[in-house]
Design brief:
The structure is a homodimer.
Chain A: E1 7-12, E2 25-30, E3 40-48, E4 76-86, E5 96-102, E6 106-109, E7 115-116, H1 133-146, E8 153-157, H2 164-173, E9 177-182, H3 185-194, E10 199-202, H4 209-216, E11 221-226, H5 230-237, E12 240-248, E13 262-264, H6 267-273, E14 276-279, H7 289-301, E15 309-313, H8 318-324, E16 333-337
Parallel strand pairs in A: 8-9, 8-11, 9-10, 11-12, 12-14, 15-16
Antiparallel strand pairs in A: 1-2, 3-4, 3-6, 3-16, 4-5, 5-7
Helix pairs in contact in A: 1-2, 1-7, 4-5
């Protein structure tokens, strides 16, 4: 039965110039793989797409982490999958796993880079969303880099997205006044009514972001968790308090830029404010992943934290879902549901 | 005798446009002051001038710290002085003090903002140089913000100046490979031969700073202590290591800029490198000043640290000494000797 089912993959057909489009991707029919010794056969269930992947699609030599996508090879991203055939007794048939997997409906794998998902902790899709890189980025970026203190003012950009929505709620849990920046009235409603964020700013309806930040942050800005960059960074930075922390998590405004973008140099203000701009990648905190996942699951299960996945159905829609990230349309973590677990 | 001596002051005659010039200052003859109850009469001995003062000369409303200089009022800067007449028994005649004092040969003062100088700790002029703001900025900026570890590569710009020369030597004392950037062959010789800095880069003789940094820092840059900013920052930042720290101490390249200068946005690289750009002012560490002064004096007295004051003689030469800071000519801390202590 399974061997009769068609297998598909999506490869990088062309390096994007600027924003990615459909023609950068190609859907191909491929053979069902044959599992070798010690390997497992996986069925993709939930595929996660993230803006940061855009950088791996550029032409050029690979980065140190081996992240670059090769032309005519399948794209990879964080995926939840199920073992449907196993030659490895430690990963029996039925096991739910996650890892950075190829965009293929079925694939054979060594289990080396797979992690088991505990279905009792939270819904399995959260292994690549709330309990995966997005949730961990929000957790460590906000708590370890931003370090918000009770009563401080925290601003989050991309606040309705997969990382921002968690970051904003974590700041609320620390007792902060939280301002979320997002790009539609629907998102602002979601932030205020569903997530309990204090003030929402719709940057698409705001002529003067500097003034909007000033009005929203009457005590200035202590922490900015930035998923966007560009002019929005500048507007928030203009209201930096002394000893403020600017956490650089993502720069979606810049991912598609062909040249390094220019902006006002922040150094002079960094001195005046004794302020700090700091970037991070979530793997900096690998040793603390398990404790963070447990805390995030606890907040989720006790309704202290809400999480929305923006779920698109169908393997062939993965490129559209990825492209949509750069249109600013998504509320919550963008995911593609490829199949139900058996 | 003293009352017959002429008194002089130097006032801000015009707000500078760009670099300061002689016409921004005016030397005036004034009366010898009469000391009131609880006050002291001070004689200026050593006046310190720093690039950061330039920012206080601009037109516009005062900053929070009350630092702005008023037109037609005397400039103030860190000065070592001697009590030559006293109505306050806690500051008897002969006491050496330092504080932010007016550019006046003689002045009457409440003792409220004066600190006593311990002549046994180190030469008294160091109260406003090595053991004053410049030395403390180097100490806390390098150790508390940069936090260099044994074996790391540390770059210092303005490395022959009053702050940079200390910062560079403190990094050497931590067991680092230290690269100093300065603007003349004489300064490079001083860095290498007098201070024991590993590699000197004369930016005025370097066509391609990025390449010069790459050649000098074969293991990349872990800490950059920046007194200059602008293109030099960009060149060093291009070779940032993972978890590198960019300490923003001064931005002499920008102090005279009328508009906020533009440059490449650092955010994308901050993420890739998990790096940090952080500003500070020395008063952030006020609680630790005494311990730092003791440590700096100990290094000086045991010859582990060398310190050069660039001493110009004569009260009337204070403006020239200040203007000279922006010509990049000074080796060591720029000071003006006004008088000998009695």
């Amino acid at each position: 039965m399974k061997n009769k089912e068609e297998n598909k993959e999506i490869v990088l057909a062309k390096h994007p110039q600027g924003k990615p489009t459909q023609e950068n991707f190609q859907l191909k029919t491929i053979d069902m793989p044959k599992v070798k010794d010690d390997e497992v056969l996986l069925k993709s269930l939930y595929v996660s797409v993230d803006p940061g992947m855009r950088g791996f699609m550029d032409k050029g030599k690979d980065d140190a982490a081996g992240n670059k996508f090769e032309l005519h090879q399948p794209i990879t991203s964080r995926t939840v999958a199920q073992v449907i055939k196993s030659n490895n007794p430690e990963f029996p048939k039925g096991t739910i796993v996650h890892g950075r997997l190829a965009w293929q409906k079925y694939m054979r794998m060594s289990t080396k880079n797979l992690e088991k998902v505990d279905p009792d902790l939270a819904p399995i899709s959260t292994a690549v969303s709330l309990l995966g890189i997005p949730g961990l980025a929000a957790y460590f970026g906000m708590l370890n880099i931003g370090n918000p203190q009770n009563g401080e003012t925290v601003v989050v950009s991309g606040a309705a997205g997969g990382v921002g929505s968690i970051a904003a709620q974590i700041a609320k849990l620390q007792g902060c006044q939280v301002i979320g920046i997002a790009g539609s009235e629907e998102k602002i409603d979601y932030l205020k009514n569903d997530l309990g964020i204090d003030i929402g700013i719709n940057y698409k309806k705001t002529d003067n972001m500097q003034k909007a930040i000033k009005d929203a942050c009457s005590d200035g800005v202590d922490v900015f968790f930035d998923n966007v960059g560009g002019d929005i960074f500048d507007a928030v930075f203009a209201h930096a308090n002394r000893h403020s922390r600017f956490v650089i998590c993502g720069q979606i405004a810049d991912y598609n830029a062909s040249n390094p973008p220019q902006g006002p140099r922040p150094q002079h203000d960094l001195i005046k404010k004794s302020a700090r701009i700091e970037g991070f990648v979530v793997y900096d905190f690998k040793a603390e992943f398990d404790a963070a996942k447990k805390q995030l699951a606890e907040w989720l299960n006790s309704n202290q934290l809400r999480y929305k996945e923006n779920l698109i159905e169908g393997f062939e829609n993965i490129p559209s879902a990825f492209i949509g990230l750069f249109e600013g349309e998504n509320i919550g973590k963008q995911m593609i549901k490829v199949a139900e677990p058996d």
